[in-house]
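A quick word before the example. In earlier lectures we treated sequence and structure as two separate objects. From today on, think of them as two lines of the same record. Here is [histone H3]-lysine(4) N-trimethyltransferase written that way.
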Amino acid sequence: MDGACLPNQVRQPIADQRERAYESSGEGSWYMFHLDMQRIMYLTKIGCMARFMNHCCGPNAYAKIISVDAEISGLGQDRKIVVFANRDISAGEEITYGTIGNWNSGR
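And the structure line, produced from the sequence above:
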């Protein structure tokens, strides 16, 4: 795989429903990432390895939402989640991103 994620987008009511289902089932962790106020990337069952990055208070990377040209698909502009390093990251070092609240810090 080339690192591209193939997740699906859901709206808040579906995300809330899936979150409740995961919490009540005891299945384990769930991975959802807000693209904007209405669209959430649902990454729990499908997506690339980046979905397993841990968040922390002293991260070495940050996630940012960017707009890209989606002319090929005929959709105009699309939004993507991109992870950038805050500093040089050593080989074998875990990549972590900022905790909720600064995930889209506008860098």
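Notice the following. The first strand starts at residue 8 and ends at 11. We will return to this example when we discuss secondary structure assignment.
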